[in-house]
């Protein structure tokens, strides 16, 4: 079997779509907290409908990330992954594997935690804020469950940011300092050394 030099087009597309959506979801999630707090504090800056719209869109895109991540994971099992450069040290390979596993845990776990949080609360949720498309509850209406999952979901946003910084920093280090092909495996237009 010929060794692959880069990820497939499907893997690349899923990687970038999910990455963009996750970053967007983290920042929107933080904004949601600010909006809800302002509304609870009596601010007239936002209406309840504004807050519901943003919450429902966050939930919708979170579920989309979950579905795309499951597709990406299945695709990864069915398609060979490019091997890491031979010049990588053992600790770098370990860090790369650990980071990738961490991302899969977050890409799947964060939407599930968010869905549990939404399900265990009292407000109904709708796909694309459309009452004709309710998001099904996957947990009972339970205050303790809601508080636990909300806490974990909120802290997970910080973990995503840390992993993204490490992941992007490592990719740039490989491209700029090591001058290997790690980054070219995931950026289609980037020229690899062997070309």
Overview in brief:
The protein is mostly helical and 195 residues long.
Describe what this molecule looks like in 3D:
This protein is mainly α and 195 residues long. It has one domain (9-185): Up-down Bundle (Fumarate Reductase Cytochrome B subunit). The protein is built from four helices and no strands. It has helices at residues 9-40, 48-78, 90-120, 143-178. Helix 1 (9-40) crosses helix 4 and helix 2 packs across helix 3. It starts with 8 loop residues before the first helix and ends in a 17-residue tail after the last helix. The model has no long low-confidence stretch (mean pLDDT 91). Its cofactor is heme b. It is found in: Cell membrane. Keywords: Cell membrane, Electron transport, Heme, Iron, Membrane, Metal-binding, Transmembrane, Transmembrane helix, Transport.
Attribute tags:
mainly alpha, elongated, Fumarate Reductase Cytochrome B subunit
How many β-strand stretches?
A: 0
Reading the helices and strands in chain order gives HHHH
- Kindly, what is the distance between the CA atoms of the first and last residues, rounded to a whole number of angstroms? 21 Å
- Radius of gyration equals 20 Å
How helix-rich are the residues, as a percent range?
55-70%
Beta-strand percent range: under 5%
Overall spatial form: elongated
Largest sheet: none
CATH architecture: Up-down Bundle
Are there runs of 5+ residues with pLDDT below 50, and where?
none
Please report the first level of CATH classification, the CATH class.
Answer: Mainly Alpha
Transmembrane segments: 12-33, 53-75, 95-118, 156-176
Subcellular location: Cell membrane
Cofactor: heme b
Pfam family, one: Ni_hydr_CYTB
């Amino acid at each position: 079997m010929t060794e692959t030099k880069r990820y497939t087009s499907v893997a690349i597309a899923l990687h970038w779509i999910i990455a963009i959506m996750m970053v967007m979801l983290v920042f929107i999630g933080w904004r949601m907290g600010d909006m809800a707090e302002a509304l609870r504090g009596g601010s007239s800056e936002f209406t309840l409908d504004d807050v519901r719209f943003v919450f429902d869109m966050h939930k919708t895109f979170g579920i989309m990330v979950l579905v795309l991540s499951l597709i990406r994971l299945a695709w990864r099992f069915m398609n060979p992954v490019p091997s890491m450069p031979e010049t990588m040290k053992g600790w770098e390979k370990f860090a790369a594997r650990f980071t990738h596993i961490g991302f899969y845990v977050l890409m799947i776990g964060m939407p599930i935690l968010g869905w549990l949080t939404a399900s265990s609360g009292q407000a109904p949720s709708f796909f694309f804020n459309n009452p004709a498309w309710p998001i099904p509850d996957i947990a009972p209406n339970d205050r303790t469950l809601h508080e636990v999952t909300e806490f974990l979901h909120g802290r997970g946003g910080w973990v995503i940011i840390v992993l993204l910084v490490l992941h992007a920093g490592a990719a740039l280090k490989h491209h700029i300092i090591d001058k290997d092909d790690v980054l070219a495996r995931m950026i289609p237009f980037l020229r690899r050394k062997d070309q």
